[in-house]
Amino acid sequence: MNEILFIAFSTLETWSIFAVSFTLFRFNILKYNLQIVPISVLMALLNYAIWHEIDMGSWTPMIGLVLFTLFIFYTLRISLIGSLIVAVTGYASVILVQTAFLYGLQLTGIASVAEVQAGGTGYYILSAVSSCTVLLLSYLLYRLGYGFSFSLQHFKVKHENMLILVITVATFILLSFLHLLKNRLYFVEMIAVVIVLFLIYIALRRERTQW
User: Fold this and answer.
1) Contact 19, 93 (CB under 8 A)
2) Residue 202 to residues 154, 168, 178, 195: CA-CA distances in angstroms?
3) 3-state secondary structure of 173
4) How many CA atoms lie within 13 A of 9 on its CB side?
5) CA 205, CA 90: separation in Å to the nearest integer?
6) Where are the alpha helices (DSSP H) in the chain?
7) Degrees to nearest 5, angle at CA 44 with 43 and 49
8) What's the pLDDT score for residue 15?
9) Tens digit of pLDDT for each residue in 63-98?
10) Cβ–Cβ < 8 Å for 183, 113
11) 25, 83, 156, 174: which sits with the fewest CB atoms below 10 Å from its CB?
């Protein structure tokens, strides 16, 4: 039963990451649900195997980010760099929401970081609350017409874009190892805020220019 619950909530969490990633860049997630739902289940199964079968949970964020990037690349048919930016922005946004809720759950004594890491009731509560919040925000963003609509099809090699590429890759690596700071939630939240604001800044600049 615990295995089924873990996979179900992990699937919801994965789907929420796709939802906010697509919505922030004005892609209609409903149009891609036939691809997103199966890959969300498969990624949830992979998460379960990594966490509980081969005990390599520390690699989950990096593997997840790689899979998100590749799936977005093949599904949306955009540039690999554009896919990386979409994936990192969505992933960082979800981390921001999750960390805020986890901090609140810890302050109220409902769940601790250790309980969430163990994949028990604390994880289910955090996953349900944060995923539903992200899905609701994604729905509101899309319905209200917010998001970035610049082209992600091509990435021209020039000084500014190479700087963006380097910083995006650095952000990718930072997000992959952010779990190491799980006992310092305020620091994780601060880093997540900085990452999201920076990625929004990049997106706003791209909105006014082209790759």
Assistant:
1) no
2) 15, 10, 21, 11
3) helix
4) 19
5) 18
6) 2-24, 33-48, 60-76, 80-108, 113-118, 121-144, 159-176, 185-208
7) 95
8) 93
9) 888 888 889 988 888 888 888 888 888 888 888 888
10) yes
11) 156
92, 171 in Cβ contact below 8 A? yes
Q: Tokens in use for 148?
A: 């970035």
DSSP code of 150? S
**C-alpha triplet 201, 68, 165: angle, nearest 5°:** 40
Alpha carbons 40 and 14: distance in angstroms, whole number: 6
Structure token digits, residue 39: 């890959």
Asked if 199 and 92 count as a contact pair (C-beta separation under 8 A), the reply is yes
* Contact assessment for residue 111 and residue 126, using Cβ atoms and an 8 Å cutoff: yes
* Opening angle at CA 94, ends 1 and 126, nearest 5: 35
| Cα distances (Å, whole numbers) of residue 154 to 126, 129, 186 | 37, 36, 37
Amino acid (one-letter) located at 62: M
The span from the CA of 200 to the CA of 185, in Å, is 22
Q: List, for residues 116-158, the tens digit of each pLDDT value.
A: 777 678 888 889 999 999 999 999 888 888 777 666 666 555 5
Kindly report the pTM of this predicted structure: 0.79
Question: Of 24, 62, 70, 15, which Cα lies nearest the Cα of 204?
Answer: 24
